[in-house]
Design a protein that fits this description.
single chain; about 325 residues; alpha+beta; Ribosomal Protein S5, domain 2; Alpha-Beta Plaits; 6-stranded mixed sheet; 4-stranded antiparallel sheet; 12 strands
C-alpha cells in the first residue's frame, strides 16, 4: 500500500534591521550586537513535500545554485533531532535578493524548521527550534518568531516588541556584494568587557521609539546602522541611494544588515510605489511591514490542511 505524500507551499519573508549597533568582539569570535528586526512582505516561495518512509532523504530543486544551501542543512538538522524518517523534497523560488542583508537564506531555513515537522507529524518545542536556528545562522531564530523583536548577543537572543501599525517601505537592492566579514573587520571592534554607555543609551532610545513609547510619526528618526560608516566608504553608490531615497520622500532611509540593500520608510504604499519608479538600475521592491499576528496567520493558512489547531509552533494533525 502506497503512503500518501503531504504537501504545502509556504512563504519565507525577508527582514529589515531598524537600527543596528555593533559593540565589542566576543571571546567566541562573534560580535556583540544590538538591533531591532522587522519582517516585511517580500518573500521567497518554498514548496515542501514529505513522504513517510524508512530512511531520511532530502532533495532540493532550485533555479539558483547556492553553495551550502541552508534549506538542505535545516532539513537534515531537524530530521536528525526529531528522528524524522521519510523523503523531504523542496522547491525554492527566490525573490529575496541574495547577500543583501535581508535574511533570505535564514528565512528559508526557518521555513523548513517550521513546515517540515508539521508534514512529518512531529511536535517540536520552541526551544528545540530556536536551538537549531542558532546553529544554522544568527538571523534564523528571528524568523521562527516574526513581527518586530529586539535582538541581542550575536542576534539570537530575542525579545518581542508589540505589534506596530503597518508601515510602507521601499527596499532597493543594487548589484553590489558587501562582504560581511570585511565589514566587521573594517569597524575595528576589539575585545572589551563592556560597550560605552552612549551606545547602550542610544539603543535603548531606539527601542523605546519603535516599541511604542513615542508617537508613530516620530519614531523613524534617527535610525542608525553602524555598518554605514565603513560600507559607504567602500561603496559610495550605496550612500547615493540613501540620499536619493530621502529626496524621494522617505521619512528615514538606512542600510539593512551589512548591506548592500537599503530601505526607505514612506507615508503610504502609493508613495513607496512612486519612489520605486525612480530606480531603473537596481531592483526596487515596495513592501509593507508584517506584524507577528499577520506572520503567524500567514503560516496557519499555508499549513492549514495539516494542522490540528492554531498554536505556535504550528501543531500537526498527524502527531
Amino acid at each position: 500500500m502506497s503512503v500518501a505524500t503531504r504537501r504545502a507551499r509556504v512563504t519565507a519573508l525577508a527582514k529589515l534591521n531598524l537600527g543596528l549597533k555593533v559593540l565589542h568582539r566576543r571571546s567566541d569570535g562573534f560580535h556583540e550586537l544590538r538591533t531591532v528586526f522587522q519582517t516585511i512582505s517580500l518573500g521567497d516561495r518554498l514548496e515542501v513535500e514529505f513522504t513517510p518512509g524508512r530512511r531520511a532523504e532530502v532533495e532540493l530543486d532550485s533555479a539558483m545554485e547556492i553553495a551550502d544551501n541552508l534549506v538542505i542543512r535545516a532539513a537534515r538538522l531537524v530530521m536528525e533531532m526529531l528522528k524524522i524518517r521519510g523523503a523531504a523534497r523542496f522547491r525554492l523560488v527566490k525573490r529575496i535578493p541574495m547577500g543583501a542583508g535581508l535574511g533570505g537564506g535564514s528565512s528559508d531555513a526557518a521555513a523548513v524548521l517550521v513546515a517540515l515537522p508539521v508534514l512529518a507529524g512531529k511536535r517540536p518545542e520552541m526551544e528545540q527550534l530556536l536551538e537549531l536556528g542558532a546553529r544554522l545562522g544568527s538571523d534564523v531564530p528571528f524568523f521562527l518568531l516574526g513581527g518586530m523583536a529586539v535582538a541581542l548577543g550575536r542576534g539570537t537572543e530575542l525579545y518581542p516588541l508589540p505589534d506596530a501599525p503597518e508601515r510602507s517601505a521601499l527596499v532597493v537592492a543594487p548589484p553590489v556584494h558587501v562582504s560581511t566579514a570585511e565589514a566587521y573587520r573594517a569597524l575595528r571592534r576589539g575585545l572589551t568587557a563592556a560597550p560605552p554607555a552612549r551606545h547602550n543609551n542610544k539603543f535603548q532610545a531606539l527601542v523605546w521609539r519603535v516599541g511604542g513609547g513615542v508617537p508613530q510619526e516620530r519614531w523613524e528618526e534617527p535610525l542608525e546602522n553602524d555598518f554605514e560608516s565603513v560600507v559607504f566608504d567602500q561603496y559610495p553608490q550605496l550612500k547615493s541611494i540613501k540620499r536619493k531615497l530621502r529626496r524621494l520622500g522617505a521619512r528615514s532611509a538606512m542600510l539593512t544588515g551589512s548591506g548592500a540593500a537599503l530601505f526607505g520608510l514612506f507615508r503610504s504604499p502609493a508613495d513607496a510605489a512612486r519612489a520605486a519608479e525612480a530606480f531603473e538600475g537596481a531592483p526596487a521592491f515596495p513592501v509593507r511591514t508584517v506584524s507577528r499576528a499577520r506572520y503567524r496567520a500567514m503560516w496557519w493558512r499555508s499549513l492549514g490542511a495539516h494542522l490540528s489547531r492554531k498554536e505556535w509552533p504550528p501543531v500537526s494533525r498527524y502527531s
